[in-house]
Specification:
homeobox; A43 homeodomain transcription factor 1; DNA-binding
Length: about 130
């Protein structure tokens, strides 16, 4: 059974639209569709290469799109790591701020005389001086 090569313009269109598929998958937080599409594109590229039907322009486009996909994925991964770090620092700052605010707004105990001094009668020496 002979493999059927995909038309170059169809493969080119699928390669370019895969970039939109990546953004769509990231937006939906579901990359299953783009992974499936890339598996199909990969299969068709290999089939076209094996049958000698892969055009140089399509091969070059595939390399370029793959490079852009890799760059985008690396960038989004770096952004995610940076955002997670900043979110953790923000949570720490908010916790510290909340603790400081609670300490400022809680009533501070006032100094009152000890019960023994408050109930003690004046000493005879102090009353004789009145």
């Amino acid at each position: 059974m002979a493999a059927i090569a995909v038309r170059p313009d169809e493969l080119n269109d699928r390669l370019v639209s895969s970039l939109d598929g990546l953004f769509d998958g990231l937006h939906k937080a579901d990359l299953d569709g783009i992974i499936s599409e890339w598996q199909s594109i990969d299969h068709d590229l290999i089939t076209s290469q094996n049958t000698g039907a892969l055009h140089r322009e399509t091969s070059s486009l595939a390399i370029s799109v793959t490079h852009w996909m890799e760059t985008l994925c690396d960038t989004f991964t770096s952004l995610k790591i940076e955002a997670d770090g900043r979110a953790a620092r923000l949570r720490e700052d908010l916790a510290t701020l909340t603790l400081e605010e609670n300490q400022k707004t809680s009533p501070t105990p006032s100094r009152s005389p000890s019960p023994s001094r408050a109930t003690r009668s004046p000493s005879p020496s102090s009353s004789s001086q009145l």
